[in-house]
Amino acid sequence: MYRFKLAIDKLDLHTVRVSTTTNRVHLWEAYQEQLFTEVYSFDYIVSFTEFPCPGQVACSSHDEPVSEVKAEVCSFLQQLPAQGDITILRSTLISGCFSHGFSTRTGGISSISTLFSLNLFCSSKRRDPRTLVDENIRRLALKAGFYPRPLHPVKVDHGSDVWAMGKEEEPQDYDGIVTNQSGVVIAAPGADCMPLLFTDPVSRVIGAAHAGWKGTLLGVAMATVNTMVMKFGSRVRDIVVAIGPSVGVCCFTLNREHAAKFYSVHPDCVSGMAETRPHVNIRLATRILLERGGVLPEHIHDDTVMDRPSVTLCTSCHPEAFFSHVRDGPNFGTQLGFLWMEETRTTDGTLSDCMLDN
Questions:
Q1: For all residues of the chain together, what is the average pLDDT?
Q2: Crossing angle between the packed helical segments 130-144 and 25-35, to the nearest 10 degrees
């Protein structure tokens, strides 16, 4: 089944017609659920009912229970060789009392060129199924050190809603997430859009946000900061923000009407305003809005910072390292920015690094 999927992906086919027996339809559907997404259309033709030969037992769901298919597929995917090594970018501005990182595209098992190889997001519009993406996330977690902790990514809506985890019920959609819970891994996706990580080592609060151009204009970055302040008692001057890999002004354009909104934030956010599609700097706009909200300029790590290793590389300019919607089109892969806090005390009862930093 997996080789079959690779074959039709290589041919860019979407429609599959399956001629099978009544006894086997349920198994085909089970494998379909695990290895395919809504991109594919399956048409089942039941040609006959399978009867046993004399002396044989009829095939039934008990021979290969559907409930075992998921475990079988997961086990199979775990045995596939990785395509390259997992590389994680880390901001030297974020205190060592927090564990964090920004993923790159290598080290996973995704096979489609625009998703190759560590795609970390599943969508009904893309060809990577949930089970495959979960295996990529498992491999990232092992490398990054948060396995077997569960990952809590934001539920992207390209808006500015923020969920205060531990303070309120989880909303249906949100582009920011904030918590003061230790051991909880929060994350934000990005493939041109910015994964933003927020840390407060004084009050021990963390946040993650997804910011595309729409979310940037709606103020998702400061909405995340404000949630840290209002829900968890952070002070704005203590908050540190790292802007992860995202599309640079070199590669990102908008129509003049939308670019004008960034020009209103600051003229330096737009290059070539007179052009039909001006170049727009969503990272600079984010920095400006954060500084206006009270975040200290030296507490923001972006591509303007020259004395630290960069974590804000252009995703479109580096196809060997990052996925990019702008470059690759609608069937693009996704990186993650992720972040968590360890417990405040170690197993021997001593204070952790985070407490000592304070």
A1: 92
A2: 40
Residue with tokens 């495959």: 132
Q: Which two tokens stand for residue 182?
A: 């230790």
273-312 confidence digits (pLDDT tens): 999 999 999 999 999 999 999 999 999 999 999 999 999 9
Q: Are 108 and 349 in contact (CB under 8 A)?
A: no
Listed residue (125, 246, 248, 116) closest to 189, CA to CA: 246
CB contact set of 339 (below 8 Å; sequence gap of 6+): 98, 99, 100, 185, 186, 187, 197, 199, 206, 207, 208
Q: Which of 106, 122, 127, 55 is nearest to 321 (CA)?
A: 106
Give the tokens for residue 199: 């840390």
**What distances in angstroms separate CA 137 from CA 83, 133, 149, 231, 311, one per listed residue?**
14, 6, 11, 29, 20
Confidence class for position 56, pLDDT limits 50, 70, 90 = low
> Cis before residue 148, ω within 30 degrees of 0?
yes
Distances (CA, A) of 6 to 13, 81, 127, 142: 10, 15, 10, 26
Q: How far apart are CA 115 and CA 74, in angstroms?
A: 19
Is 0.85 surpassed by the pTM of this model?
yes
- Please report the pLDDT score of residue 62 as a whole number: 44
Q: What is the mean pLDDT of residues 74-98?
A: 97
At 88, phi and psi to the nearest 5? -120, 130
**CA dist list (Å): 236 to 132, 160, 233, 272, 289:** 39, 18, 10, 34, 13
